[in-house]
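Posting for a labmate who doesn't have an account.
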Amino acid sequence: MGNYAAARSLVLLNIRETTTISGIEWFLYETGLRGPGNEPDRRCAVRITAEPGIHGWADVPSWMMPNAETAGAIRSRLLGRDIDWPSAIWRELYESGLPLGTLGAVDIALWDLVGRVEDKPVHALLGTQRQKVKAYVTTEFNLGDPARYAEFALSCKQAGVHGCKIHPHFTPGTGLDGAPGIGFPDRDMAVYAAVREAVGPDFACMADNDRTYTLDEALRVGRLLDDLLYEWYESPMPETEPWRERYIELAAQLKTPICAPEALPGSHPARIAWLTSKACDIGRIDAHFGGLTPCLELAVACESQGVPLELHDVGLDAYPHLQLIAATSESLIRYVELSSLSRTTRIHPGRITPEPILDEQGYIPVPQTPGMGVELDWQHIFAHRVN
């Protein structure tokens, strides 16, 4: 991130006076796969065109698609203007009240466009620092008894990945302050202990019960994690502002770093407030909270405060994360999060670019093609467009 200011000036000098935005198009399309409830899986592609006919795009979840009124407001703000550093456009749209999902789609497409104009990957615009990143794998919730979790963690170690994050037990439903489930701290503690025993003391283990504990429960589990030398303790309690004081107390009493907040509404300013108040020891965000720009801004804030940042796995939407990771040091962002140990090459319908896969040393390579590194299958998108 030390090259961030220099890269910003360079991009402004190269493109500001010569390239203007001439078109913004939105495409809601069906992938041909099935989603929750066996409903057709849909994605949203946004394409931004700049003179002289260069395109940048994003392929995002369908919920990031704007309605007609919002799409019109975006066009009125952006058409005909010079391409600026995307973070400046992000701030303008954010202050206009644009929904974070739609803002994120626009932001990712703008960064992709600038990279293609410059014929560079986005990480090169920011200052490339590395070409690959260590991966860890996160379990499913309710995977089974402690032995099943231990077996999975050991398989991660044997596969060469660099850590395993445990999603333990919960019952779906409404938990504390509307959290998405009810936790079982005693059962979880047995899981965390079994995993550590299976993988030994030198393999990175993380704990994430997804906001289901009370403060007393979080302290009790956290003290065990201290003894077990877990890498971090993620989102143990509800993540709303009324709970921030309890997070401050939790972080002060435990040695294991608290990684949060993942689900807090709002973009990076809310997360910076948690860092500043010492409610957490590791920052947490993903591209669904407004795109690449808020991830970048939080990375700058974390670096200035001397704390690490971790980026939530968002599967198909993780390309902005890889671009940011490549422009940072391992001391700031250590890992990329995966949900599977699969090394099978996969191409998602609507795309041409295969998904990144683990190498034999447990790393994910960083894309080297211009923009975000994702090429879309426009023939599929046009053929399966939802009107």
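Reply:
Got it, the structure tokens are right above this. The chain has a mean pLDDT of 93.
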